[in-house]
Amino acid sequence: MEAKIPIILIVEDEKLLLNAIARKLEASGLSAIPCKNGKEAFEILKNAKVLPHAIWLDYYLKDMNGLEFMNALKANDRWLHIPTIVVSNSASPDNVSSMLALGVKKYYLKAEHRLDDIIAAIKEIVEKERKQKTMEKPKKILIVDDEVLVIQALTKKLKKESFLVDAAYDGEEALLKVDKLKPDLILLDIIMPKLDGISVLKKLKESKETQDIPVLILTNLYDDKKVAEVLRTGNTDYLIKVEHPLDDIIQKVKEKLS
């Protein structure tokens, strides 16, 4: 889900400056989430249903420095594409070089730049990222399940996330639709009429044209042997439906496609 108003996560340990940045951002038409240290920022990221559009980061925090923050950010598939801008009291050539190598978009010295100028730069970065996303071709998802309610619920959620969605209600129909649709990812149930999910998966992996399509098995059947069999095929994950809410499944889809 995409927020209408761009969200900026501010990570700054000087309380007065943190509040001033938040007020300035909100006065500029942006939404601000203030954090006083790195740990608090990562807790917010872990629990966020909608990720921030950019991060405003002080280099020297009380619990970690900018390099530690960026390494942790880039280690998570869900967060690694969030644009980050560093605003710091110091900027040694080594620090700036290391941070830019980790993907930081801009590195500003606090004493040399007004808040309004930095906010203008952030707006430009966010707008550029948004335009790039709208230009990207939507990913195609094929849902294969014989339960109509499951397909309806998944389709509704995936379409909200701007995916193109099609569905098949048995294994044979799934193979026909894979050939026609060329999906970017398949959500696949195991127990289905005509051809079960494991048989569909084997046929997909036997063909050079379909063997690299990521597959996410969604089932209520837990069987150690089947799980092992599925995971051995490569580029395939296994989720138990009753153990994972829809939001978890959508997040897993995004991770597989990132």
Report on this model:
With 258 residues, the chain is α/β, with parallel strands linked by helices. It folds into two domains: 7-133, Rossmann fold (3-Layer(aba) Sandwich), CATH 3.40.50.2300; 140-257, Response regulator (Rossmann fold), CATH 3.40.50.2300. 45% of the residues lie in helices and 18% in strands. It has ten helices and ten strands. The strands form two sheets. A five-stranded parallel sheet has the order 2-1-3-4-5, with helices on both faces. Helix 9 links the parallel strand 9 (215-219) and strand 10. Helix 7 packs parallel to helix 8 (197-206). The relative contact order is 0.09.
Gyration radius (Cα, Å) is 22 Å
Instruction: Tell me the name of the CATH class of the largest domain.
Output: Alpha Beta
Helix content: 40-55%
Succession of helices and strands: EHEHEHEHEHEHEHEHEHEH
Morphology: elongated
CATH topology of the largest domain: Rossmann fold
Number of beta strands: 10
Q: How large is the share of residues in beta strands?
A: 15-25%
Mean of residue pLDDT? Answer: 89
**CATH architectural grouping of the largest domain:** 3-Layer(aba) Sandwich
Alpha-beta classification: alpha/beta
Q: What order do the strands of the largest sheet run in, or round the barrel if closed?
A: 2-1-3-4-5
CATH superfamily of the largest domain: Response regulator
Largest sheet: 5 strands, parallel
Question: Kindly, what is the distance between the CA atoms of the first and last residues, rounded to a whole number of angstroms?
Answer: 16 Å
